[in-house]
Amino acid sequence: MPEELTTSDLARxxxxxxxxxxxxxxxxxxxxxxxxxxxxxxxxxxxxxxSHHMRKLVDAGIVTATSEAQRQIYTLxxxxxxxxxxxxxxxxxxxxxxxxxxxxxxxxxxxFEGDRLKSIPAKRKQRVIVLQHxxxxxxxxxxxxxxxxxxxxxxxxxxxxxxxxxxxxxxYMTRERGxxxxxxSLPERSARMVDEMPADEQDWxxxxxxxxxxxxxxxxxxxx
Length: 224
Fold this sequence. Notes:
The protein starts with 6 loop residues before the first helix and ends with a helix. The chain has helices spanning 7-17, 20-29, 36-43, 47-59, 78-84, 100-111, 124-135, 146-154, 160-169, 191-196, 201-223, and strands spanning 34-35, 63-68, 71-76, 112-113, 116-117, 143-145, 173-176, 179-182. It is built from 11 helices and 8 strands. The protein has 2 domains: 7-84, Winged helix-like DNA-binding domain superfamily/Winged helix DNA-binding domain (Arc Repressor Mutant, subunit A); 100-223, no CATH class.
């Protein structure tokens, strides 16, 4: 199963095939695998021209190349093309995916039994949703010693070291000399990482901090 494509992957693919000659090559390959010489003859192009375009198609993952003696056999990468048909925000049938809220609820329902985490998700978006849920167990207005962080995380899962490290690596917590605090802002993320994050990460984080501030203000008014 090919890895899910991001919007940047799709943009790269579209750029590669936005060429009349490459589209003609893909049309020829749709009828079956071909050698470079066969493509040159069928399309009335020189072998160097075919080689030039095939390098781009192979590098993009659209076509696969297999060596056979002194020649290359080119074949459409059908599994890759089927995945590319799925635009971000749709499922395999082209239907719109669930909203971020629905997706968050689905992930938490699948990976948690009460407060217990069944396993750490392998997919990045699902893992981040789990980590975000765990962040609601921490008070942004205070600091935590490492043993305290471990005690809180152990409520969910035995592998507290991995969870603790992931919270820091994703920028949800900061660590300095063994002391942990909830981050006040998210780190700058690369374009690829943005594609791999839940769509509502910024809204979730702002909500987390706003709720903490409101709670602190309420406690202050209660005690004053």
